[in-house]
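Query form — protein TetR/AcrR family transcriptional regulator

QUESTION: What is the three-dimensional structure of this chain?
INPUT:
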Amino acid sequence: MVRMSAEERRESVIRAATSEFARGGYHGTSTEAIAKRVGVSQPYLFRLFPGKKAIFLAVAERCLRETREVFEKSSEGLHGEEALHAMADAYTQLIADQPEKLQMQLQVYVTVAAAEAAGDHEFGEMVRKGWLELWDAVHLPLGADIAQTTTFLAYGMLINTLVGMGFPPGHRIYGGLYESGRAKSGRGDA
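ANSWER: The structure tokens for TetR/AcrR family transcriptional regulator are given below.
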């Protein structure tokens, strides 16, 4: 049996923690569940990450970065409406194919709101930084148009909320969204 390096094990923890946090949220997920999913002891888990908060922050950062990368890749070489529709299509396909990504995003926002209300700003600082990077990734292909960027991201958050509440693709509630921004079935369902 080949042993994993610490970096490979960290990656395994981030993947496992993504699944656990996406389902149970920050407060509803134990480090024991994460360690069990990875197949390591809790003491080993804490050699890789100093605590649950550090694991959650790593997962949240990854979630935001991967979302930003979807926007960057899909809009590469495109501008304006063409970029808008390419990014909307890529994002809605991402959350259809990998619903855990959307669940994790929603858990991140809930966790930040709860932490901020309790006076803990560390979660919020990291997430706001990631969101600013995401904003810039969308803003530039949309011609640096603030109104268009705001509308695009607002539609995205609306889509997140509707999909999170379980409105299926094709539901009339998506009728006011442009076609590329409507919820999709997973690639296996299409």
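ADDITIONAL NOTE: The chain has a mean pLDDT of 92.
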